[in-house]
Design goal:
This protein is α/β, with parallel strands linked by helices. It has a domain at 69-208: OmpA-like domain (60s Ribosomal Protein L30, Chain: A, 2-Layer Sandwich), CATH 3.30.1330.60. The protein has helices spanning 2-14, 42-51, 57-68, 84-97, 117-137, 182-185, 189-200, 204-208, and strands at 72-74, 103-110, 145-146, 150-152, 169-177. Strands 1, 2, 3, 4 and 5 form a 5-stranded mixed sheet that branches. Helix 5 (117-137) links the parallel strand 2 and strand 3 (145-146). Helix 4 (84-97) crosses helix 5 (117-137). The longest helix has 21 residues, at 117-137. The termini are far apart. The relative contact order is 0.15. Residues 62-178 form the OmpA-like domain. It is found in: Cell outer membrane. This is Outer membrane protein OmpA-like peptidoglycan-associated protein. Its main location: membrane.
């Protein structure tokens, strides 16, 4: 019996590379003697790096937001009305934003190249304000959203003088932290991570508070 047990232990350890061998439990050493393989403490290191500026948490969140959520909604020509697709996208944005109460966002308004510069800048700003109003109606704190920047027709996705739906858009972006937010100033980054696990397990309808058939508040 003992011979079979020892052979099994030898087989397990020999199947591992030298770098992984310390992670295999040993029956000939006391409990807890397996040394750290280098990953323990990374949460603390991450927290420290964020608060001393070595790691740009805002940039990391901005990248994550653009990867996990569609940050863009499009509009009909000369319109600020949100269609069904736009509302679906904004509900996803609201769900994501509600998970991070310490983070601020900006909504940038764009237009196509038809019309004067002055009119298009005004139109772009109105589109951004429509998006902000919709997100606020879905539970996002108004102080965390900014719609003061309108790029008008200065940054088209498609360079054309005609009507182009892809240019008529708003883009929501992470821009920073809420001033004097306790989670940020007290260094409680672990609370943010823990909250993501808990909130991420909830159905989206609980986070947004509305069904997929919600209508615009404009």
């Amino acid at each position: 019996m003992w011979k079979h047990f020892a052979a099994l232990a030898l087989l397990l350890t020999s199947a591992c590379s030298d770098g992984d061998r310390d992670a295999v439990p040993s029956w000939w050493r006391e409990a807890g003697s397996v040394i750290d393989n280098g990953h323990f403490g990374e949460a603390t290191l991450n927290n420290t790096s964020i608060h001393n500026g070595d790691k740009q948490y805002v940039l990391a969140l901005a990248n994550r937001f653009s990867e996990e959520v569609n940050s863009t909604v499009n509009f009909a020509f000369d319109s600020t009305q949100l269609d069904h697709a736009a509302r679906m996208t904004l509900q996803q944005q609201a769900s994501w934003i509600l998970q991070f109460p310490e983070v601020r966002f900006k909504v940038y308004g764009h237009t196509d190249l038809v019309g004067s510069d002055a009119y298009n800048r005004s139109l772009g700003l109105r589109r951004a304000k429509t998006v902000v109003s919709y997100l606020v109606a879905r539970g996002v704190n108004r102080d965390r959203l900014e719609a003061v920047v309108s790029l008008g027709k200065e940054q088209p996705l498609v360079v054309t003088q005609g009507r182009e739906r892809r240019n008529r858009r708003t883009v929501t972006e992470v821009t920073g932290f809420v001033d004097r937010h306790p989670t940020v100033l007290d260094g409680k980054y672990a609370e943010v991570v823990y909250r993501q696990y808990v909130t991420g397990a909830k159905p989206q309808t609980e986070l947004v508070g509305l069904s997929a058939t919600g209508t615009s508040s404009e």
